[in-house]
Every structure is written in structure tokens, then in C-alpha cells.
Amino acid sequence: MTSPEFTSNRDNYCYRHPDRQSFVLCQRCMRTICPECQTQAAVGVICPECMKAERKNRTPAQKRAARRWGRSSGASAVAIGNGRAGRPLVTYVLLIITSFVSLVQMIPGFGQALESQLFFAAPYIMPTVSVYPFEPWRLLTALLVHGGFIHLGLNMLALWMLGQILEPMLGRARFLALYLISGLGGSVMAACLAPLTGVQGASGAIFGLMAALLIIGRHIGANVTGILIILGINFAFGLFSGGISWQAHLGGVVVGALVSFLFTRLRRREQRVWLIVSLAGVVILLLAAAFLIPPLVVFSFS
């Protein structure tokens, strides 16, 4: 179902497929295009009509180079075709890296040492009140390690399913930013609400992706009831289950919703600088909260 406002706004539909909702603009003509119509360019994606015009304007040398290297276009570093234009490469890379590190972590006699170097706890960012070394990178490396096969499997399944939807809609750079900033938000929230508890896993980032799917779906007028139900069930499970950091889930949801809201408001090419500045501001605020709030919480209970 769609809202009347969405139905009347044709900018939210692919101009070549009027029945398909999308969130991505052609970087040449700035019209909305669906994943089938997207061709990866040096920056962003372009539509079939702009690709056709670009092919006509290529020099003979560019045409010879394209034939030699088997490329359909000089503007794209990826082979062109409808089946590959919207391929979620960032999702696949995150899946491979996270799965590899987590599986190595589970090797007896070696994995525990790796986990001890990557998991996150607030004392690692409180050098003035802790004997632990100052290692702020753990805020993100915690996304790479998990508490077992089930923990890893559920998170990677969710990443694969959500990435198939969100990455073609947002584009690779925005999707990666959403994932990492949401994961950072999960670690920061855990540090603020449970500063003496260690956390690991990509759950914060995954919940950020779910929140983004909810916000973007709502923005384009889609029926988001199912997403709300799934998000609520998962959050309740983490809240009432032992050994699961509901704080990280909450942080991922809040930050993922904020980042995706910025995407919906700053989606045009001329707003790119404002989007980058806004995302940088979110990261700075998260880091400030991570470094300032946990020591106050620790002192209040000491």
C-alpha cells in the first residue's frame, strides 16, 4: 500500500518502470531509477539513456580500450549488464570479512586471543579511570567477532537479506556508512548504559539496517507494519534474553534511524556536501558521548 502523497509524487518511482519504487538517482540526469536500470559508474550509478548517450560520445581510442578489456563503457569499472548493475558488493564484502574473522575466532587455542583483541568494553576508552589500554578502534572491531555459530549465522543471514534490499536503493557508499555508523552507535550505547559489560557482534549494525528499512520504507509510502513487528520481536528477544546486549541493539536502531532520515532529506547531488557534514557530525557526537558519558556512569556507581 502507498500513501496518496507518495502516489502523486512520481519522483519516487523509476522513470523507466513507473510501478517500481526506488531511492537512487542517476548521477547524470538526476532521475529516479530502479536496480534493474542502474549501471555502476565511477561515482554513483547512471541510467540506460545516459549510458547510451555516453557511448555515442566516446572517442575511437575509448571504444578500442573498451573492446580490448571487455567493458561496455569507459565510465564503468564493472562489466555492464542488468544482472550486475545492482549487485550488493559491499554486503558480500562485509559478509566475507566478518564470517572469516568470526570463524577464526572459534578455532580452539587461538580464537580466544583474537577475541580478546577485538571485542569492546567501555574501559578501553576510559584511560583516565581504567588500567586498560586506550584502544578506541574496538568500537568498530567488535562488529567482527561473535559469541558462537548461531550468533554469527543469524547476524550474517540478516545482513544478507537486508543488504539485498538496501544497498541497491542507497548505493554502496551510503550503505557502508549506514552499517558502520549504526555499529558505532550500538557500541556507544552499550558503553553508556552498561560501561562494565563487554560486547561483540554485528547486531548493532544489523538493527541499524532494520531501522533504515523502516524509515526509508515509510518515506516512500510503503507498508512497514511487517518491519515494525520483526524489529519489535528482535528487540524484545534481546531485552529479555540473558547474554545479549539490548543496549547495542537500541543504539543501532536509534543511530540507524537517524542516518537513514538524513538520507531521505539530503538525497540530491547538490546536497551531498551537507550529507557528508551531517554524517560527520553524527560520528563526532557519538565519539564525544563514548568518551564522556561512561566515566560519569562508572563514578556514579563507585
How would you describe the overall organization of this protein?
- Helix 5 (89-105) crosses helix 6 and helix 8 packs across helix 9 (172-193).
- The protein folds into two domains: 4-85, no CATH class; 89-301, Up-down Bundle (Rhomboid-like fold).
- 37% of the residues are buried.
- The strands form two sheets. It has a two-stranded antiparallel sheet. Strands 3-4 form a two-stranded antiparallel sheet.
- The protein has 13 helices and four strands.
- A hairpin with a 4-residue loop joins strand 3 (39-40) and strand 4 (45-46).
- Helix content is 61%, strand content 3%.
- By secondary structure, it is an all-alpha fold.
- The chain starts with a helix and ends with a helix.
Summarize the structure.
The chain has 13 helices and 4 strands. With 302 residues, it is mostly helical.
Question: In whole angstroms, how far apart are the ends?
Answer: 53 Å
How many discrete domains?
2
Q: Kindly state the mean pLDDT as a whole number?
A: 81
Oligomer: single chain
Q: What structural category characterises the helix and strand content?
A: mainly alpha
Largest sheet: 2 strands, antiparallel
CATH class of the largest domain: Mainly Alpha
CATH architecture of the largest domain: Up-down Bundle
CATH topology of the largest domain: Rhomboid-like fold
Q: Strands across the major sheet, in which order? A: 1-2
Question: In which range does the helix fraction lie?
Answer: 55-70%
What's the number of extended β-strand segments? Answer: 4
